[in-house]
């Protein structure tokens, strides 16, 4: 169809009307901050070295043309998305010298975000689970070969555990690995349709190897799920005889990843392909059990820890976008004026808007920071296990990683949705980045352990502690010491300005303790008339509530403790208010638990509510600077709404220009 002027011409006419330079509102916000941004950023990232590394990695990526996107990824179809991600992955791993590849918590995820964006891709499982599985589960004397092959990409692997019929319940996986002592091989087989592997990332097209979880049978006996290194494709990348493999189709998000299915037909692998660091099958078929039954699940524990940090950063990025946008957006209708006649206001000035934004911003800080010390805990535990077969800390680490994974992924997904809503219509556009962020984050509620299933693992740990405390002989892990403290009758919380950190912690601990023991009592009462598993099922909603509260208490305590380490007084003051807002918001949301039995009085509850309103007002002038303290570049953010310069409207027009529908 002929037109007088193309959409592109019209666009350029608009664009010329728009002035260069940062949006004046956002500049004003920055100038009004009560703290020094650099000091705050150093606190957020622990030290200036980490901050400097962020900048160096950004500059490296920006200066390499192979990381450019000729077409904006939002406008690609699935094949093109996979091609793009694969091209980027190759460029990424060809330049690994740019980062410390062992830094899985900071440098590696940042590098990946800058090069590819928020996507699980064809190498996510290779780096995220296959390499860690080799590291954690291969005997020291044998590790070099497979590790070097995997590290150099001579082999590309995935982690194939979930099946069509079973994902959470690992004990019921159906794929079998039957040892044949005559040929010294394992026979890997898919005995039923529901035993087909389903979901592994990178399996559909990319991987040629997999760490496969299968039920081990040796000398005619079942020994439970074990891991095996299995080659799937030949040198020409065709599936090997006995292997059927393919892509499972499009999903809610992460569509650049070729999640796949896998069926084995009596497929043989050498005996040494069993990962034998902890459990073994000797040549004659003798089985040697591991020092701890659950060591085989170690790679999952590590990835849960990685996810906690990764997901929290998504919430941080979402808060940055929504806060910056709220600073440059004015409400367009007359009713929007707070004081009639004084003109339009920034939407950031609405108290309801602050209530949508600032608790999410607060939520994004504690878990990201704690993960730095969790990283050292996990290293410590791994060392203990490797050196002394000391398993004492394993249950604590399992409970903690499962609980944090469940609570944080849920809060991140909910938070991103709340922040999307706070941006009105533009939040619904993919240009905002919210849809991709949400699709990425919500996947984390399911993979690496479905959240309810994970909470129930925490509850197992808590019920065991409660039983020990009641028996008067507790051996308490550090994270559970508070469970043995004496009962508290009344809450200590008061006005946000006067109540101390100790008061807040006292109340959180007391409420969580009550919840744990109330659940424990209900469970033990039910167990008198029901089978144990039936009683557990009947109690499971309360068990999840107690587990959630335990994790939230942990997060509140750690946020407050971390704020105390901030050396810059101005930054500490703002962060302290943010930490209190975080705690008060949790109390307000969980009011039922706090007010039960009159623990928190109505007067105190009102003070909590009022405190929230006052803290929102107190943080408001610093909100853009607090968003900036995440030190996220535009390349990392990938959001038109969250641009650092605040020039949202021309950027939206420019982004829309790339729609293929505007090309003819
Ligand atoms: C440049 C490079 C760039 C690199 C960037 C890097 C960034 C990476 C980012 C990450 C990307 C990765 C993406 C990942 C994608 C998803 C992958 C998957 O989903 S994969 C698939 C993920 N799939 C899943 O996650 C499946 C989830 N399901 C499970 O994990 C298990 O079935 C279960 C835990 C639920 C039950 O276990 P089960 O044994 O069946 O049953 P019981 O309940 O009877 O428990 C008995 C006892 O065992 C105990 N215990 C249990 N586990 C552990 C442990 N780990 N430890 C210690 N203890 C443990 C438990 O406490 C209990 O103790 P007690 O009370 O008796 O004392
Ligand atoms: C994006 C994505 C990527 C993935 N990547 C991989 C991968 O690379 N490799 C891999 O092996 N897997 C992968 N998975 C699979 C993932 O690990 C599983 O989906 C997950 O572990 C949940 O298992 P399920 O799907 O069987 O859910 P189910 O266990 O069937 O859960 C369904 C419902 O049942 C409930 N439920 C289940 N068990 C219990 C219980 N004991 N008590 C109470 N409620 C229960 C759950 O809470 C949930 O509400 C991926 C999944 C996704 C979404």
From TrEMBL:
GO CC terms: peroxisome
Residue positions binding FAD: 162, 201
Cofactor(s) it depends on: FAD
InterPro entries for this protein: ACOX_C_alpha1, Acyl-CoA_ox_N, Acyl-CoA_Oxase/DH_mid-dom, Acyl-CoA_Oxase/DH_mid-dom_sf, Acyl-CoA_oxidase, Acyl-CoA_oxidase_C, AcylCo_DH-like_C, AcylCoA_DH/ox_N_sf
Protein family per UniProt: Belongs to the acyl-CoA oxidase family.
Pathway annotation: Lipid metabolism; peroxisomal fatty acid beta-oxidation
Biological processes per GO annotation: fatty acid beta-oxidation using acyl-CoA oxidase; lipid homeostasis
Domain Acyl-CoA oxidase C-alpha1: 297-463
Protein name: Acyl-coenzyme A oxidase
Subcellular location: Peroxisome
Parts forming coiled coils: none
Active site: 448
Residues of the Acyl-CoA oxidase C-terminal domain: 502-663
GO molecular function: acyl-CoA oxidase activity; ATP binding; FAD binding; fatty acid binding
Domain called Acyl-coenzyme A oxidase N-terminal: residue spans: 39-137
UniProt keywords, alphabetically: ATP-binding, FAD, Fatty acid metabolism, Flavoprotein, Lipid metabolism, Nucleotide-binding, Oxidoreductase, Peroxisome
Any Pfam family the entry gives: Acyl-CoA_ox_N
Stretches assigned to the Acyl-CoA oxidase/dehydrogenase middle domain: 159-265
